[in-house]
């Protein structure tokens, strides 16, 4: 297929979505530029409207998935979810899930939580990835914040994976991060423990003390919007 360049590809990868050289752009992006592009698309509403072209872009990265590092994998999978890309979603997720397995020991807490959250949100089973992640999560617990913890626990519960070791290993961090928990993250955590029928008086006590304050915050938020 002959591709005619109507203009020079700009230095900012995100702007290339508007150019006629789309196919060439998709095939020549380096992993770091693809990472940057996905990150930009997620936060720019004007780019989200180009759903078909963005879907083509995700498919273009499929053949070079092995070149992507753990942070790029997290951004790509989150990008597919947040941009609502469903074309060949399972194919791309399974491919990058296999790549993520190779990097699982290198992941940090934030990116690992994003990957697991994306698989759960897409409802795509990845038992091997979740099981492998369960072995490294205790080691990464200290680097996780309340959002990372909530996303991980929610993901395991959403996929129905009994990972008691993961839940037990994150108990202490939940108590340490309790003061920062938002209502949403509190609900995610409590729902996850309840769904998998994992008892944790430590977590219950830590979150229970936050509930009255959250109710007040919710009321105040409501009053300011009416």
Show the helix and strand layout:
Blueprint: H1 22-28, H2 31-43, H3 45-48, H4 51-60, H5 70-82, H6 89-103, H7 109-122, H8 127-140, H9 146-158, H10 164-169, H11 171-177, H12 183-195, H13 201-208, H14 211-225
Helix pairs in contact: 1-4, 2-5, 5-6, 5-7, 6-8, 7-9, 9-12, 11-13
Note the main sheet: none
Q: Which series of helices and strands comes N to C?
A: HHHHHHHHHHHHHH
Rough shape? elongated
User: How many separate helices?
Assistant: 14
**Care to count the β-strands?**
0
Unreliable residue stretches: 1-11, 14-23, 219-226
C-alpha termini separation: 57 Å
- Specify the helix fraction band: 55-70%
Strand content: under 5%
Summarize the structure.
With 226 residues, the protein is mainly α. Helix content is 67%, strand content 0%. The chain has 2 domains: 1-103, no CATH class; 135-226, no CATH class.
Walk me through what this model shows:
With 226 residues, this protein is mainly α. The protein folds into 2 domains: 1-103, no CATH class; 135-226, no CATH class. Helix content is 67%, strand content 0%. The chain has 14 helices and no strands. It has helices at 22-28, 31-43, 45-48, 51-60, 70-82, 89-103, 109-122, 127-140, 146-158, 164-169, 171-177, 183-195, 201-208, 211-225. Helix 5 (70-82) packs antiparallel against helix 6. It is elongated, with a radius of gyration of 20 Å. Residues 1-11, 14-23 and 219-226 have low confidence and may be disordered.
Label this structure with key terms:
disordered C terminus, 2 domains, mainly alpha, single chain, 67% helix, 226 residues, disordered N terminus, 14 helices, 0% strand
């Amino acid at each position: 297929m002959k591709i005619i360049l109507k203009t020079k590809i700009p230095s900012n990868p995100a702007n290339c979505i508007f150019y006629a050289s789309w196919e060439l752009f998709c095939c020549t992006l380096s992993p770091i530029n693809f990472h940057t592009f996905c990150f930009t698309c997620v936060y720019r509403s004007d780019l989200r409207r180009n759903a078909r072209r963005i879907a083509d872009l995700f498919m273009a990265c499929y053949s070079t998935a092995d070149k992507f590092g753990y942070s790029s994998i997290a951004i790509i999978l989150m990008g597919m979810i947040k941009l609502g890309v469903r074309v060949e979603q399972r194919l791309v997720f399974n491919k990058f899930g296999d790549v993520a397995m190779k990097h699982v020991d290198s992941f940090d807490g934030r990116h690992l939580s994003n990957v697991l959250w994306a698989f759960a949100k897409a409802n795509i089973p990845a038992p091997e990835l979740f099981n492998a992640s369960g072995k490294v999560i205790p080691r990464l617990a200290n680097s996780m914040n309340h959002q990372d913890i909530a996303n991980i626990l929610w993901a395991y519960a959403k996929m129905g994976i009994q990972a008691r070791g993961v839940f037990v290993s994150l108990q202490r961090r939940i108590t340490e991060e309790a003061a920062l928990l938002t209502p949403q993250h509190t609900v995610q955590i409590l729902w996850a423990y309840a769904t998998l029928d994992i008892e944790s008086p430590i977590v219950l006590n830590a979150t229970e003390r936050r509930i009255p304050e959250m109710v007040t915050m919710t009321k105040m938020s409501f009053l300011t919007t009416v």
